Amino acid sequence: MSGRCAHFKLQDFIRPGEAYHYARTTLTADNVARYHDHDYHEVFWVLRGQGEHRWNGRTVPLGAGTLCLIRPADRHLVTGSDASPLLIVNLAFPSKTWADVRKRYFADEPDCFEVPDEQRLWKQELRSPGGPNHWAERLANPDRPRVSLDGFLMELPFWRPRSDAPTPEPVPEWLVRAQREIVKPENFIGGAPAFARLAGRNPSHVARVAVRCLGKTPTELVNAARFEHSAQQLAETTKPILDIMLDCGLTNLSHFYALFRKRFGVSPRRYRLQAHPTVRG
Q1: CATH class of 9-159
Q2: Per residue in 238-266, pLDDT tens?
Q3: Among the residues of the chain, which ranges form H helices?
Q4: Whole-model pTM?
């Protein structure tokens, strides 16, 4: 393709605190971005319509189910059709996140990242649990949380064998068991490593499956157990707040207050007073 190539920066799209940029865009023959590259990774997929992807000197057709991965060095341009406008979901995120996800969740699978640039999905693959459309609702969360991005990236079909008849993956029994056991104080005091031991699996594998099946990391599951226990102790006992925190396996009081307030909307002391007004401290 002739003409100058623009360079886009993620900082122009992403807001402070967001892990990624998410957008649904309708493209026609005239409504297109300039030919460009960028300083971030990008994934987009087509929900409906017809168009073209001009990409590193070649042109490929786009239609419903086309999923594309764009790296910083790639130069591309997506065009739609006036007769059949192209509706795409676009996700842009720091390239460092891509490396982090690979290291965190796929450290024990070194060969799975020999990925092609493009994948064409069947309709059932798009809509199935774990498919792009399944994740789109979570990704649209206005907070743009990192856990949603991690969950989506690890489910991309680029690095798993193509299946013409995908089936939903049930929550494995070992993960159900770990969830059940982690609520016990003698277990959650050990944090995420204890969760992996209860699961009986490699920590990176446990983290990957937990995010994929439950939408939460092991640390989030452990903290949920910790703070449910803390709330119960605050409401039903006169035990000092510091001791309750230490019994949960946490050592930083300000961090404990911040996480508790984020979960329950009030400080530990206020929670205790609301649940049991006669208790002080």
Answers
A1: mainly beta
A2: 899 999 999 999 999 999 999 999 888 88
A3: 95-105, 123-127, 132-139, 146-154, 173-182, 185-188, 191-199, 203-214, 218-236, 241-247, 253-264, 268-275
A4: 0.58
